[in-house]
Amino acid sequence: MTKTTRQKFAALLLSASLVVGTLSLSVSPVSADSDPVLKLRLMETTDLHTNMVNYDYYQDKLVDEYGLAKTATLIKKARAEVKNSMLFDNGDLLQGNPLGDYVAKVKPLKDGETHPVYKAMNELNYDAANIGNHEFNFGLEHLDRSLKGAKFPYVNSNVYIDDKDKNPNNDKNRYTPYLILDRTFKDEEGNDVKLKVGVIGFVPPQIMNWDEAHLKGKVIAKDMVSTAKKFVPEMKKKGADIIVAIPHSGIGTEAPGANEENANLELSKIDGIDAILFGHSHAVFPGKGFENMKGVDAEKGLINGKPSVMPGFWGDNLGVIDLELTQENGKWKVKDSKTTVVPVFDKENKKPLVDADKTIVNAVKKEHDLTVKWVRSAVGKTTAPIHSYFALVQDDPSVQIVTNAQKWYVEKAVKGTELEGIPVLSAGAPFKAGGRQGVNYYTNIPTGTLAIKNVADLYVYPNTVKAVKINGTGVQEWLERSAGQFNQIDPKKKGEQALINEQFRTYNFDILDGVTYQIDVTQPSKYDADGKLINKNAKRIKNLSYKGKPIKATDKFLVVTNNYRATGGGSFPGIDGSNIVVDSQEETRQVVINYILEKKTINPTADKNWSFVPLKEKANVTFVTSPNAKAFAAKQPHLKFQSILESGFAKFSIDLSKKTK
Fold first, then answer.
1. Parent domain of 573
2. How many angstroms separate the CA atoms of 485 and 541, rounded?
């Protein structure tokens, strides 16, 4: 029934009085201005990290757990279920696996060529997309050249051109800050409805630290919340009926400061934003882990009442928000919403839920095949297997190789300079240690030939090598920050105690090779998972020594690390970019390759330079890792397999009363 027909029918009913015999029949009038109802489905992909095909380049095999080729099947199904839908991507797209490395470094994308991620995504008719922080990893030129291949528009509101005039009032956005998309949808009665959909994107301002070498002097990044407060009212004035925010940012904390990395709690409070499609944290929302946060409905998917979704990473889920819109006094309002995260894989029963979309697979076949050929190239040999199954609980061979290569590189770099002779330490963290990336996210390289894929497996980020100059106190604090990886253990407690702090990011668990030390987990952590000082007098790091002698506060060291850490990533005390003394543009991954090429054959055995202070009592301490760790644990008497959990991870006990060295 059209609106005109409704009005005529309502008028007829209002004027009619029906009398049948002595029975008077009263009919309720229908409003002449009955408000139309519009249902709109918003779909989101995020943190795809170049995973277009459902393929693990490190293990060199097809997988069922992730990949846009899998998500595409969900997208097409979700689209077919409704009359009205829109599709968005939230960035961290161009970096993340060897396919992205191949197109950026091995056979760099040229002007006029289309990046394989867009060959795939252009098949799915995205409405708009946001730029993530990892888009900047390969520099602005590569980003600009890549974006030209997208057949859908991009938004980012908080990255500005660095005009160097120190006047923030005349700063110009480097990208389109927002869009107002004119769309025609069908309301619930089948009528055409024109809707202006505002779309605004954000990226963490920390990109200026994380990719300083690429961005300094070219762009600046501003606070996401203040930027939203500037542009959202402007979007409403320009006629946006609803506004969809796409922040490449996590939920955040209740007491945020300026330039927060995870800002969605504050963004959700801004009047005018109707829905939030977010990412960056590689988590699933709505879902577990968000239940007790103030203002967050972890079941329905609301943040301060705003429908919100975060669909994991690598295309393992499709995020869906179903909005029910009503028009009141000429303005569209969100009357109700339903948020769902649709997986591509059944983790509980370990079976795929969808097939890969052949259109996506075929779109990137050329680049995919070339990448596979490249990652199979040999660089050397290893005399023992290399795995990261126990990287969080004892010194680890997968980290050892990286720290050895970094130390080798910097010691050569400082020869003949004023830095020669200063002791060189090397910082490395276990990148692939399960956690939020899942039970398959571990390094496992067999004895024998080492190929490019293995090196990329050892070091998954395109970071560059840096070295900072710090004193003995700085070394102590660096390790105290890293020791936040562990929960505090009560040696007298009879019940089970988890050793690993699941809120702590494993890439912030730095091992410092070149010194020896022990970690006392019976003490509280000095820093929290975000690097904030919480126990000023706490001291977990014991017996810190260099060449057998205790380190003094005034001792000087060079610490080799990466550009992320050296410029402040991870909030390590005193590490903010001001004390960089070796500022290399050489990628860490290439340094590891060059190290293996020179050595030809390597022994990956960890040197066991760190351990736990042994407990006086035998407490029931546990940790989780891959079930594949069982065979390796059998050779280590202090580690014992306990059970397989519903998550698919395996639980092990660790006897901290025994020395592991």
1. 378-493+502-611
2. 13
Query: Both 115 and 245 in a single domain?
Result: yes
- Check: CB of residue 566 under 8 Å from CB of residue 575: yes
| 3-state SS assignment for residue 207 | helix
Regarding whether 123 and 96 lie in a shared domain, the answer is: yes
Closest CA to 340 of 40, 646, 43: 43
Backbone angles phi, psi at 134, to 5 degrees: -75, -10
Could you read off the pLDDT of 588-633 as tens digits, one per residue? 998 999 899 899 999 989 999 999 999 988 899 999 999 999 999 9
In a shared domain, residues 175 and 197: yes
Kindly report the length of the chain: 661
- 576, with CB counted inside 10 A (0-12, 13-18, 19+), is middle
User: In angstroms, rounded to a whole number, what is the distance separating the alpha carbons of residues 602 and 403?
Assistant: 13
Closest-CA residue to 333 (of 402, 271, 377, 279): 271
- State the amino acid at position 321 in one-letter form: I
Distance, in Å, from the CA atom of 422 to the CA atom of 242, rounded to the nearest integer, reads 59
The total domain count for the chain is: 3
Q: What is the CATH number of the domain that holds 601?
A: 3.90.780.10
Nearest to 464 by CA among 628, 580, 337: 580
Q: What is the pLDDT of residues 644-657, one digit of tens each?
A: 999 999 999 999 99
Residue 462 lies in a domain: yes
Whether residues 449 and 573 fall in one domain: yes
Q: Angle at Cα 509 formed by Cα 262 and Cα 58, nearest 5°?
A: 90
Percentage above 90 pLDDT, the chain:
84
Quick: pLDDT tens for 492-544. Answer: 999 999 999 999 999 999 999 999 999 999 999 999 999 999 999 999 999 99
Residue 113 sits at the vertex; the CA angle it makes with 111 and 115, to the nearest 5 degrees, is 115
User: For residue 458, is it within any domain?
Assistant: yes
Instruction: Tell me, yes or no, whether 551 lies in a domain.
Output: yes
- Structure tokens belonging to residue 661: 């060295």
Question: Which tokens in the block code for residue 167?
Answer: 């006047």
Same domain, 250 and 182: yes
Enter the tokens of residue 86: 């829109």
DSSP assignment letter at 105: I
CA dihedral (111, 93, 591, 425) positive or negative = positive
pLDDT (0 to 100) of residue 590: 87
387, HSE (Cβ side, Cα atoms, 13 Å)? 17
Q: For position 591, what pLDDT does the model report?
A: 92
For residue 6, being part of any structural domain is answered with: yes
| Angle in degrees, 0-180, between the axes of helices 397-413 and 588-599, rounded to the nearest 10 | 90
Q: If you write DSSP's letter for every residue of 286-320 in order, what string do you get?
A: SSTT-TT-TTEETTTTEETTEEEEEE-STTSEEEE
Do residues 365 and 384 both lie within one domain? no
Q: Averaged in consecutive runs of 10 residues, what is the pLDDT profile of the chain (661 residues)?
A: 44 38 36 76 97 94 97 98 98 94 94 97 98 96 98 98 93 98 96 97 94 93 97 98 97 80 95 97 91 92 98 97 94 96 94 98 98 95 95 96 96 91 97 92 95 92 93 98 98 95 96 98 97 96 98 98 94 94 87 92 94 94 97 94 95 86 45
Question: CA 318, CA 74: separation in Å to the nearest integer?
Answer: 7
Taking a C-beta distance cutoff of 8 angstroms, is the pair 419, 584 a contact? no
The reply to whether 111 and 150 lie within a common domain is yes
3-state DSSP assignment of residue 285: strand
